[in-house]
Design brief:
Blueprint (H helix, E strand, L loop, with lengths): L7 E5 L3 H13 L3 E5 L2 H11 L3 E5 L7 H11 L4 E6 L4 H9 L4 E4 L4 H33 L5 H41 L2 H29 L7 E3 L2 H17 L2 E6 L7 E3 L1 H17 L11 E9 L3 E8 L6 H6 L15 H12 L3 E7 L3 E9 L16
Parallel strand pairs: 1-2, 1-3, 3-4, 4-5, 7-9
Antiparallel strand pairs: 6-8, 9-10, 10-12, 11-12
Helix pairs in contact: 2-3, 5-6, 6-7, 7-11, 8-9, 9-11
The structure holds adenosine-5'-triphosphate and magnesium ion.
The site of magnesium ion has 5 residues, from helix 9.
């Protein structure tokens, strides 16, 4: 059997003594330790060495623990970050949980606490790893292109759904655990602020699990779509009304170019509404990542009716996508939004579009933005040749 490579732990602490003691303790427990005396060095080592786990002091000069946590989570949301806190640092500990720290241990560090925090982090990592291996196995299954391809294709879809779901649930469970800890502290210390913070975090996670179950229902729905004659501008216009407020709040110029054609087409308007909502939400989210601060944020939704097809386009000048994300999009559940995303959005969108016999494609450039284009075949009559549906808009 191949010996497993020791896990790499990045250890950031400005106190020489603590760094030395922890390094010895962790190395004797079989880990590879990369020590760093400050946040800046820690971040550099993180980028170069890609450690599995990060343990960082919360209070440090320069980039402090919370800032380091934020930057690391931005670079790789999957990293398990354990915070070291002082005795009176409960406020900071609570804050770190809100920024998705895995756990925290208090000084003076008890080696049992340290061991248990690392063990928990390893368990969560092994869940992620298992999900990844599972997805890769499924991919090879389909690539083998055996004669039971349709069976394998079915398997891959089911498997990916389960994998995507377990991943999202793992993230939400982490969030719920963090919020219940903050709530417990609030009750114990009779601290209203903690109660409020814990409750806000808990509500956010309840929203996430509600959204996840709805996404899953939509994805798994086997009921046929409800095709009706509808003006293709209508679902787009609904999104403009729904999201206009959010655009304003986030200083995004949100433009809508409707089609000037007055025509009814067969479509499931509610399903198309959901697809456009997914794309617009993603476009708005594309400004959360580091984009040029001086650039005016813009998102444009267009609807065009051509001779034989309906085209919807959602264009943003946000972050664009990395090659890795680009390569996985529409093929597997992928999210770069950590606890704020599930990766169901685009998979569900693709499914709905394909059920309309349409296609969806995209182009993207890192740092400049992305455009998603939906193409639907234009059908103006139902199968019986009659014209049903709502009025012109
Ligand atoms: N317009 C965009 N600009 C930049 N990245 C995007 C854009 N649209 C999608 N992405 C990338 O594709 C990933 C998958 O998108 P998808 O909508 O499937 O999931 P999500 O937005 O992460 O989560 P949710 O399930 O809440 O929609 C996103 O996490 C993001 O990295
Ligand atoms: Mg999305």
């Amino acid at each position: 059997m191949k010996a497993r490579k020791p896990l790499k732990i990045l250890l950031v602490d400005d106190e020489d003594g603590i760094r030395k003691v922890l390094k010895i303790t962790l190395e004797s427990a079989g880990y590879e330790v990369l020590p760093a005396p400050d946040g800046e060095t820690g971040l550099q080592i993180f980028i170069q060495e890609k450690p599995d786990i990060v343990i960082t002091d919360i209070k440090m000069p320069g980039i402090d623990g919370i800032e380091l946590l934020k930057r690391i989570k931005h670079l790789n949301p999957e990293t398990e970050v354990i915070m070291i806190t002082g005795h009176g640092d409960m406020d900071l500990a609570v804050k770190s949980l809100q920024y998705e720290a895995a756990d925290f241990i208090t000084k003076p560090i008890d080696s049992l606490d340290l061991e248990s925090a690392i063990k928990k982090a390893e368990d969560r990592m092994s869940i992620s790893r298992n999900i990844k291996t599972y997805m890769e196995d499924l991919k090879t299954l389909v690539e083998e292109k055996d004669k039971r391809l349709t069976e394998s294709e079915k398997l891959i879809t089911i498997g990916q759904t389960i994998a995507g779901m377990s991943h999202a649930i793992k993230n939400i469970a982490g969030g719920l655990k963090g919020s219940s800890f903050i709530l417990e502290q609030g009750i114990e210390l009779e601290n209203r602020q903690y109660l409020k913070q814990g409750w806000e975090m808990m509500k956010g996670n309840i929203d996430k699990i509600t959204k996840l179950s709805l996404d899953l229902l939509n994805y798994a729905k086997t009921t046929r779509l409800n095709f009706q004659l509808e003006n293709p501008n209508t679902p787009a216009r609904e999104i403009v009304q729904l999201m206009g407020h959010k655009a304003k709040e986030n200083n995004i110029i949100f433009k809508f170019h409707p089609s000037s054609e007055k025509m009814l087409a067969l479509m499931d308007s509610d399903a198309i509404h959901n697809c456009l909502l997914n794309l617009i939400t993603n476009a708005f989210d594309a400004f959360n990542e580091s984009v040029d601060k001086d650039r005016q944020k813009q998102v444009t939704l267009s609807c065009a009716i051509l001779k034989k097809e309906i085209i919807y386009s959602v264009k943003d000048n946000g972050s664009g996508m990395s090659e890795t994300v680009k390569a996985s999009l529409f093929k597997e559940f992928i999210t770069t939004k950590g606890m704020n995303g599930t990766g169901f959005g685009l998979m569900t969108t693709k499914k709905i579009i394909e059920e309309h016999q349409g296609t969806i494609c995209f182009q993207t450039e890192p740092g400049r933005g992305s455009e998603f284009i939906i193409q639907l075949p234009l059908r103006t009559k139902d199968s019986k040749g009659g014209v049903r549906g709502k009025d012109f808009h």
